[in-house]
Each structure stands twice: as structure tokens, then as C-alpha cells.
Request: fold
Amino acid sequence: MNLTLKVWRQKNADAKGAFVTYKAEGISPDMSFLEMLDVVNESLILKGDDPIHFDHDCREGICGMCSLYINGRPHGPKRAITTCQLHMRSFGDGETITIEPWRAGAFPVIKDLATDRSAFDRIQQAGGFISVNTGGVPDANVIPIPKVIADEAFNSATCIGCGACVAACKNASAMLFVSAKVSQLGMLPQGQPERYSRVQAMVAQMDEEGFGNCTNTRACEAECPKEITLTNIARMNNDFFSAKLFREEHAHEHASGE
Amino acid sequence: MSEFKQTFNSSLGKKLIMALTGLFLCTFLIVHLGGNLLLFSDDEGYGFNVYANFLTHFPPIEVVAYLLYLAILVHSIYALVLTVQNRRARPVGYAAPNRSPASWSSKNMGLLGSILLLFIVIHMSDFWYAYKYSHKIGYKEYRTDLATDKTTSVDYVPASPTFEKSVSTENNVEIVRVKDLHARVAGSFSNLLYVIFYVIAMGAVSFHMLHGFQSSFRTLGWVHRKYTPVVCFIGTWLFAVIIPLGFAAMPVVYYIQSLR
Amino acid sequence: MTLEAKIPEGPLAEKWSKHKFNLKLVNPANKRKYDIIVVGTGLAGASAAASLAELGYNVKAFCFQDSPRRAHSIAAQGGINAAKNYQNDGDSVYRLFYDTIKGGDYRAREGNVYRLAEVSVNIIDQCVAQGVPFAREYGGLLDNRSFGGSQVSRTFYARGQTGQQLLLGAYSALNRQIHLGKVKMYTRTEMLDVVTIDGQAKGIVTRNLITGSIDTHSGHAVLLCTGGYGNVFYLSTNAAGSNVTAAWRAHKRGAFFANPCYTQIHPTCIPVTGDHQSKLTLMSESLRNDGRVWAPKSVEIAERLRKKEITADQVAEDDRDYFLERKYPSFGNLVPRDVASRNAKEMVDDGRGVGGSGFAVFLDFADAIHRLGKDAVAAKYGNLFDMYYQITDEDPYKQPMRIYPAVHYTMGGLWVDYNLSTNVPGLYALGECNFSDHGANRLGASALMQGLADGYFVIPYTLGDYLATIGPKPVDANHPAFAQTKQDVMARINSLLALKGTKTVNEYHRDLGHIMWEYCGMARTEEGLAKAKGLIHELRADFWKNALVVGENEEVNPALEKAGRVADFLELGELMVDDALMRRESCGGHFRLESQTPEGEALRDDDNFAFVAAWEYKGDNQPEVLNKEMLDFEFVHLTQRSYK
Ligand SMILES: Cc1cc2nc3c(=O)[nH]c(=O)nc-3n(C[C@H](O)[C@H](O)[C@H](O)COP(=O)(O)OP(=O)(O)OC[C@H]3O[C@@H](n4cnc5c(N)ncnc54)[C@H](O)[C@@H]3O)c2cc1C
Ligand code: HEM
Ligand code: SF4
Ligand code: FES
Reply:
């Protein structure tokens, strides 16, 4: 199949970017979207041009590195998959495809289609952990966890940190991501001791990074490749208000793992 | 105190305020509609006028009313603050139109809210302000024969312009003299443009509620497998259908009546 | 040079405890005077960095991805072994040890493997305490499954994403230390060389992948946790960025590279569809618990299937050859990976392969669906079925999956002793990057175990011994070795950027992959390997003449990154072939056609090849020198593996 690509090109974080149009010819429907870009890039390199830069690594939908806002949707038109799992058979011959980077103040463009998502790391560093040192922990079967809780926590834990939720949200809010992390640890018995300090620390960092607020539009949930649900956000809100309004704990007294 | 400030300055805190004020406004919608239904009773505006007077003069209600104005104010201001912040969170927009599935109303709460605000301002200045602070509204005198329970009404011109209401009983006939807001309402609703504006505003209420009611529960963190569907049901049927229809019916019915 | 493996004396079960006691300790007050460099933040690196920081050392950690959470450990699906015996089915530390030694075809060290089995139980405790959501039973306790040819259920799992959950656990421990300021994290930073002073590792040279800035970092020790080199085959189940550069640069600075030819080919991957293919996707081998592997009995039927004249479900039961069940009645579809892979290749070589290309066999769930119901099958394998559907556009609930083996794991790696130290003092290798515990073949669910064992429970002890020995004197960051190594790195980058030929780096990589797969893949011969050696040599020479590398250093330049990695793969490929040529026996994943039993199984030659081959770099274009570390088996009896 033959396609026309409108791709955002931007040399670096400070440069002004613009759309450039490319032809992608002889594309097989069995190619993944990234393989299609590989083909375009090979031809650019052979012409001595700068290849289109995009983030990717595992190419099997789990590392969360790939991104791309394709025709108005993060990770493209299909539900519950990442861009690297998207195959060209999802597009029609002759179609024009617009490819943009994630857009959010907290995700500045690094080059072309790649953005800096280290804000997510910083949010997790602020409190997304259970403070246990290596060694000296009890036997794994000492704490039984009801299967429903374990399964629910697992559902939240499947987040791959790709940022599609931020990209999809009209407010560029990171609530789905943050709440998935907060929920996972907040639901498990191991996470209880720091449950309320954790949510405060993580929300504070989220705000500091400059993400938008949540309007519960559900765009994030619809675009999340791992189908993280909006319920996580409600869980986080509940914990946050409970922590702020009713509990004797402060973020600045946060027992930061000492 | 700074603890509170910190809480309410956070993204979640601002949303908490939106949700609480929003829900408070929702309860008001119910009360307000209940009162307005009196407009439909065929009593020459008696019940409605008494109710209007009650609303504006019963002290506890007055307190609630000021809370209400405050809620509208705070809700609107925070709506603005949040919207500005959300815009700032995405300084460079997308070129391709967003195709992520999300309900129209959820994406347009600001627009819907702005229509509501405009409506509320006009509505208040027309009725509430006119009622309370101007002398543009006439009076009516209702005479009810307590034996037969029949009410007749005539226009009434009080001696003093600050007259509000009087109730007296003469020979088994109860005489109630109040401001005739009912007439003002009937008058306004005979204006087609005015009616259209009302209906549009009620459409905005409907969509605002369609998303807003259940959203506020999510914001508060009250989500439950069993009860959330109930909340959605109430939000949809009561707040997004019955209430706006009820409000919209009045101007429409009055307009149709005025045509006769 | 004699290689000192430093395995402690004494009974197996006491070796590690005794060794721990004999290791020197670093005074707690002195720990903060040491700087440790950890390259790689996969399971091995993240767990090591976090644990060392908890002890009080200052850690600098590096990864080339944008976040430590994205290391390729994230992709592991199946599970992690531990000798917990929670299922009361006869498991024990000794059994896990024995299975691992046997599974590795007796080419691993007893002492190391026993220690691995011993600490495996602590790993699960640690992960659960961190909040890793392992699968549970209704009673709330942990669930296990049997995996990869083991006859006990000792595999802990987290749906189809055990690797991600374990890595997120280690990442959270790492995050906590970053938050506390004990770890400084450098993301999007690639290590390009090791700095040695007087033969000891004292630092590294890195390139910032955003600005191109070349920097030096000094430390008292350098830990390489940089993963495997499966991408030397171009197509593998590894991530696009997985590379050998860190290990290879260390090798060129003196660290021995052990058993490079031991590669694991995983039987259940989605077959190649065309030249455009950039990677292969593995589907957890847990699929073999319920799926049945077959190929058509006759070439004619296979031919018709390939031409799409008939579909798989139209092939009569009698025309199907469930070849694993037929040949290995007791293990059936659950034979170890190397055996399953080789048999699939035999079918294809026999002309009985299926799929458009003919390079596939079937993995059929019809029976399981019939027996358990579609819902039960979906509950177990739903995500894998979805993944298969996404990639192939075929519904495995209706048609059998097509599978074919793909390169998956590299047992070889930097040579390390019992302390995980390479032969360069101060330079350590952990996780898939070292060669240590899996011999010639790795059992399923044991790489995650090894990575975490190394990082959480081995290196915190063994590193202390070295640090106590050298003392806390600060490393002289102004030593000329730093400037010199940095200059070497820049020179190499400049020579890569000077390549303005006509062939892209990716094409060279693909060509190399073809050669490796063809001659150094599932079955190897003297003749083929000799041919491969020549081909790789030519390809490498051509690369340095005709490759095309665009862009400059001072920018984001993936073309340059790739060029550096492929240049290293081209050198590694040759060493792998040398190693495979040298090893005139079959063992585990290394199958020499010249050395097989009458039934066509791998035939070891214990008299001549019971050793670790540790290769020593002698300079550009010089043949590498083989050093042998003999393997002593005191406790297990070497037998021919049999899964009949
Ligand atoms: C698809 C797949 C499925 C698997 N399933 C299982 C399973 O079910 N069970 C099991 O036990 N094992 C499994 N394995 C094997 C196992 O996942 C790996 O062997 C193991 O995770 C390797 O961990 P690691 O920490 O050694 O390396 P990795 O996780 O690969 O980490 C390498 C790290 O090094 C960094 N790095 C590399 N080079 C450089 C450089 N030059 N400069 C700076 N940083 C660098 C990377 O950024 C990364 O952080 C699977 C492997 C694959 C590919
Ligand atoms: C009858 C009057 C009103 C009622 C009953 C009402 C009710 C609500 C409710 C329940 C919500 C949901 C809160 C949440 O998601 O947590 C909401 C949201 C909102 N309202 Fe109103 N509202 C009214 C008037 C207004 C007005 C006058 C404005 C603005 C000028 C406004 C603007 C908004 C906006 C922008 C939101 C979305 C906030 C967000 O989630 O980001 N509303 N409203
Ligand atoms: S919540 Fe979903 S969309 Fe958001 S980062 Fe996690 S996986 Fe990606
Ligand atoms: S590249 Fe890893 S999720 Fe897409």
C-alpha cells in the first residue's frame, strides 16, 4: 500500500518545528506502524537526510517507550494496544496519516516525535514505593491477600507508563497514570503503612510537574493501551481527601524511607 | 490553615471545590424546580407568588440563598481557574482534531457552564433583582373564602412602594396581598426570543448535568461497583432529563398560553 | 592465564554461608565514601543499585532508555522460579539446583547454581514485600505453575507480565534511593567504554544521547548489568536497543568473554512475515502447557497449507504429526526449549513447515478449548491470544497458532568468578550480561531469578569484600586514563560518522543476522561455521568502508548509536563463531550436527569439553586466546539428558 505521512519534525527542544510530508510506498499490511517508519527512515538515510526520530524499544507493547499521536489518537486508531503493536492493515491504501508527538507542557519535545517523560519518573520517585530494604522481609506467604484485591491491584499495576493518557486528555492530565500507581500500592496490605503519605507526595509532585486537572472525560481510559480504568482516579481522590482532611499526616513529614 | 490552603490549592483540592459547589447547586435545582411547578397550578399565581415571597423573606432561606450565590460564584471562579490551568498544561496543541472517544458534554463543561452563568445573570436580574430591589413588579390581592375555599384575585396597589406582603382575615375571607411575580413571569414568557434563550439554557443544564453529576461523585472518590450505576441513573434521568424538561416546560407552556 | 573461579570449599549447602562469613565487611561509616557505578537498570542493575544504596554506598546508575523502568527485563512474560515448595510437590533447593544444572547440560558451576537456588526463596519474599502483585489463589496465598519442562510447580507469575511486575518492584526500590539522594540516575545515557587504571576498573565513559556530550564518571567499582546480546542475530525477541556494546567494550579492555556461542532459541515465537520485520515476538512457553505442537504428516498437505488451499482445521487427525508427543512420551510438549526448537526446525527442513513462508509449525488449542472451555482458556492465555491476533490477524481460538523458534537469550557473557567479578578487578557483571549460572541452556523462568539473585543477594556481599580491600581512598578523576579513554571514544565516534558509503547500518545488521542464524543458529557444522567466519569478516571490512552514517555527534542521533552497536556485533559475531567452532560437541543450545546420539539428540563430550571457554581479547584483528576454566562436578553425576 502507498501512504502519505504528515510528520512533525523538530530538530531539538528549542527549535521551532513544522510538519513535513513524506510518501511511504510499497508498505505491506503486515508491517507494524514502527516498521513502516523504519522503511521511510531507511530511504531518508540513503538520501543523506535526517531520519524521523521516535522513541521505541521492546516493540511488543510492554516497555511503554513508543508513543506517537496518530490521526488524532495516541497509539493510533485501535483500542488497547501501543503504537508498536499497531499494524498497517488498520489503515487504508492511499490514506494520509498525521503523526505528532505527545503534546503536554510536562512532556517537552526532545526531537521530532520523541518527548521527555521523565516527569513520570519524578512522580514515582516522590513516593511510588514501599519502604522496605533488601533482606529482612517476612515470608511471602505470611500476608494472604484476597484474590479480588490481588487481581484489582494487578489491573492497576499493568500500566506501562507510556503517557498516552496525558496525550489523550484535553487537559493533559496525568491522573490516570498517577492513580494507577497510587491504587496498586494503596490496595495491597504491604502498601498500607505509607498509603496516605504516598498519595500526598505523588499528587504534590504531579502538580509541580504542571499536568492539567481531571474532568473525568474518560478519554484516557479509552486510549490506555493497558485499559487502566477511571476507577483508579476515584480511588486516589478518596485517599487524597481522606489523607488531607482527616488524617494526622503531612507530606512534609513524609517518612521518606528512613 | 496553610494545610487547608495547600489542600485546596492542589489540583485535587480545586476539583473538590468544584464538585461540592456543583452538588450543592444540584440540590438547589431540585428545590427550585419544585417551587416553579407551582406556576403550573391554575390558581392565578397565588401559590407561586406566596412561594416567591417566602423564598425572599424567610431568614433561614435567605442564608441558604446567599450560600447559593456564593456557590455559583466560587464554582464559576474555580471553573475559570481550572480551565486556564488546563490550557496551560498543553501549550502547543495538536494539528489533527482529537478523535479520542469522550462524551461531548465532558469536553464542553466550560462552554456549557458559561451559558449557564449568562443565563443565571439574566435570570436573576429579571426576576430576583426586579423582585427584590426594583418597583417594577405589581401586586395582587387574593381573597379566599375559607368556607368554600374559592380564591379570587384582583390587582392591588399598595400605599407604600416598599410594601411586601400582608395576610389578614375578614369575615371568613382570607386576604393575601403579595408582589405579583407570576404576572412578570407570564409577561416575560410571552416573548419568543426569551423563551428560546430559556430553552437553550435548559439544554445546557441538561448536558452540564449529564456529565457533571456523576463526575462530581468520581471527583469526591465515591465510586462503587454497586452504587455508581445508581448515581449515573439519577444524573441522567433526574438531572439531565426531568429537571431541565421541567424548567423548560414553563416558558414553553406560558408562551403557548400567551398565544391564545 | 589460570582462571580462579573462587568457589568456596565445603559441602554444597554450606558454601555460600561460609563464603559470606569469610568476606570482608566495609565499616558502615565508610560506606558513603565509596562510589559505585551501575550500568543498566534491568532486574540485575536496578536491584543492585537499590540494594547497594540502601547499604550506604553512593551509586550512579545508567541506562540508555528514557526511564529505568523500560529495561528489557520488562518484557519477560512467563515467570520466576523459586524453591519455595509452597505446592508440597517435592520441590527443594536441591531439586531446583539439580534441574538447573541438568537443564544447562552440565556446563555450569555447581557452586554458583546451588547458591542461585538457595537465594531464590528470598527473592520472592523481597518482591512480595515491595508490592509485586503475583498471582494468588482464592485462599489469598501465592499461586504457582509448572514451567519450561519442570515437573514441579515452582514458577511464580504475574499474568503474562512477570518481568514488568518484578522490574517495577526493583524500580520502585531504586526510586526510593533516588529520592533519598543515594542514587543518581542517568537516563538516555549510553556507556561506551570502561576506564581502567593499573588494571583495575575505575570508571566509565558515556555519551549523553540527547546532547551527544561525552563524559567520564569515576567510581571504586563498575557493575555491568547490561543484558544479553541476542540482537547479534538481528531478529530476536530482544528489544530494539538491546546491545553488546557495554560488555564488548569491557572485553576489549581485558575482561574475558565466556561461552559466547551458547544462545537460547525459544520455540514459541511468532514466525517471520517478511524482510521488513524488525523483531520477533515471543509468546510465553506456558502456552505449551495446554497447546499441542504438530506439523502435517506429509509434505503434500504442508504444501497445500502453505498455498492456503486448505486451513489447519481441515487437516484430519490422522494426517497430523504431534511430533513432540510422539518422540518424547513422558515430557511431550513440555520438553526443554532447545529440544522443542530443534524439532520444529527438523519439521521445516523436512518440508513440513506451514504458514506462507513454510517456516512454522502449529500450536493447537482445539483440544484445550474442548476440554476446559473457551473461557478457561481465555482466562489463562487471553492476553497472549490477543497479542497473537494483533500481530498476525488470525484468531487462535479458531485456528491453531503458527509458531517458530527465535533467538531469545544468551547464556554466554562476561566471565565472572563466584563473586561476580570479571577478571578485571573492580569490574563486575550481573544478570544476563554475565555467563554464570545457566550453562549451555537456560531453563524457563530462571533468568529473572538470576538477575534478581545477583542484584539483591549476591553483589551486596561480594562487592563489599573488594571495596574493603582497596579502601575508601577517592578515585582520582583527573588520572590521565580518563582523558585517554574519552579520547578513544571520541575517535571511534568520529570514525563512525566519517562513514559515508552507500549501505545503511541496518542492512549490515540484517546481513549479519542472516549469517548468524544460518550458520550459528539452531544447528551448527564445522563447515558452516568456517564459512560464516569468512562471511562475517568480509562483512565487517565492508562495513568500515561502505556503511552510511548520517548526522553528527552533538544531537539526538539514533543512526550513530546504532552504528556503534552494529560495529560491536560484527566483532562479537566472529567470536561466537570461533567459540562454536572450537566446541566440537553438542550441549544445550549449542547443537553440532557432527555430535549427536543415534536418535538425533545432543551428544556431549564431557571428557574434552567440560570447561568454560573464556576468550581473551588480544588486539584488533588478532585471534582471541582461549582460556579454559575446568568444571568440576563433585555432587551431581553427569548423565545424558533424556526427556523421552
Ligand atoms: C521476550 C522475553 C521474555 C522473557 N521471559 C522470561 C521469563 O518468563 N522468565 C525468565 O526468567 N526470563 C525471561 N526472559 C529473560 C529475562 O527477561 C532476561 O534475561 C533478564 O530480564 C535480563 O535482565 P538484565 O537485568 O540482565 O538485563 P536487561 O533487563 O536487558 O537490562 C539491560 C539494562 O542495561 C542497559 N544498557 C544496556 N547497554 C547499555 C549501555 N551501553 N549503556 C548504558 N546502559 C545500557 C539498558 O538500558 C537496561 O537498563 C525473557 C526475555 C525476553 C526477551
Ligand atoms: C445550575 C448551576 C450549576 C450546576 C448545578 C453545576 C454543577 C456542576 C457539577 C455537579 C459539576 C461536576 C464537578 C466535578 O466534576 O467534580 C460541574 C462541573 C463544572 N461546572 Fe458546573 N454547575 C453549574 C453552573 C456552572 C457555571 C455557572 C459554570 C461556569 C461558568 C460552571 C462550570 C463548570 C465547569 C467548567 C465544570 C467542569 C469542571 C471540571 O471538571 O474540570 N458550572 N458543575
Ligand atoms: S495509565 Fe495507561 S495510558 Fe497512562 S501511562 Fe499508564 S498505560 Fe499509558
Ligand atoms: S516499543 Fe515498547 S511498548 Fe511500544
